[in-house]
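Course assignment 3, question 2. Fill in each field.
Student: A.L.
Task: Predict the tertiary structure for the chain below.
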Amino acid sequence: MSRSEFIAVTALILFGAFVLGWIASWLVHRVARPARADMSELDRMAQQLHEAEDQRDAANAALQEREAALTARLAGTQAELRAAMDGLRDSRSEVEELRDYIEQALARR
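Answer field:
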């Protein structure tokens, strides 16, 4: 076999492999291509997915609003508690001062 015959045979073999690969690819795409009914089902599923994502986003927004409201309410309640505790502390010290005063007054008699 001469060099030119070898090149020609190799070229034909490579071209044949290319044609067979292209035909196989075309057949796979032809068989695996979704039908129109499948495409409408995919479109419907995509629409449902978008709606679900919108609902999720709305739920997240509502959750964040609720969390912010509860955080503000908690801060207010904590401030009220601190004020009440300060008032109670002042009242206790005042009661102790009054007890000491009464005890001193009774001791003088």
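Instructor remarks: Residues 7 and 13 are 10 Å apart (CA to CA). The chain is about 95% helix and 0% strand.
Grade: pending
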